[in-house]
Amino acid sequence: MKNKAEANAPQKKYIGGQAVIEGVMMRGENMYAMAVRAPDQTIQVEKRNLKPREKKLAFMKWPIVRGVVMFVDSLVTGMKIITRSAEMAGMMDIEEDAAKADKPLSAKAEAAKAAKAAKAAAKAEKKEAGPDKKQGDGLLYISVTLAIVLAVGLFMMLPVWLGSFFKGMLNGNTWALGIIEGLIRIVIFLIYLYLISLAKDIRRVYQYHGAEHKTINCYESGAELTVANVRPCLRLHKRCGTSFLFIVMLISMIVFLFVRTGSVPLRILSRVVLVPVIAGLSYEVIRWAGRNDNRLVRIVSAPGMFIQRMTTAEPDDGQIETAIAAMNGVLESEPDGPALSGKPKEICQPDGPSMDAAVEHVENEHTENNHIENNEP
Known about the structure:
By secondary structure, this protein is an alpha+beta fold. It has a domain at 89-316 and 342-364. The chain has 15 helices and 4 strands. The protein has a 4-stranded antiparallel β-sheet. A hairpin with a 2-residue loop joins strand 1 (16-20) and strand 2 (23-27). The protein starts with a helix and ends in a 13-residue tail after the last helix.
């Protein structure tokens, strides 16, 4: 039973997020705020309202179906946000040219820079509501479709083809091909993550990813959002999209156990056809994991938490400051919202625990159920 202090304490809302180009996006219930570090080192914050599809469409309450819709919507929104963040991060090219020449900006250049920034912002607003919006959305959907096709080819079709070489060793046990394909898929995924992590720009995205998680963990712990408070927080989060991708691979391994055929074309067809089902089931699992905190949840979440060691990196104070700006953008626009319940985990400690100690603390701590909305950080 809650005491008076707990009852009067401010309620925490469900907030998720995403690392973008030189910044962080934080997502609330009805809007998102994106903070991007510009070349002049200022932080630009942009806010956008979200379409309340879940409230308007009845089928958004149907299990699995809502997962498929949310998956596609997240891809489209994510692509749109990343594209916009790249525009914001490169908006000050006049200043960049002056910096390369090691010369201070003249008054004329300063005025031109300000005018360009205002023009770009106005253009973004016009594009959001004007006739070009449909054309822009069409290009985004084409990009998302291509991304899905490439992902299906790399993580679905390629494992099937490679797994077919093991068929002769299984003595007709075609069900085992699902396990072999699943293991191959995980290996491909880990190699993919490693290869892209070698790129300097991706490394910075991973740092912003870590800043996003740290900021959300600080917020959910109840501490004030300051750089000093955010810095020691855990850079992993069980609702992360990386965890979702790993859950997708585990679910696909289980589902494909029941698709027993030795025909490579039929196996490939079944993998493609079942992608929406696997995405929907994975969404429900990650949603369940986000709403609960017990031994089973920690076991299910452990692989995804481990993979996050590859997709996040320790951020610097400037990156943490940017993530805080995005979080504050949501909190300022949504003073009320669905509240977290249960006692927050102690994942932010003032003495700054080591990474291994923090992970061990999260994985081994026995706490009461902590209901958390499925906004993937």
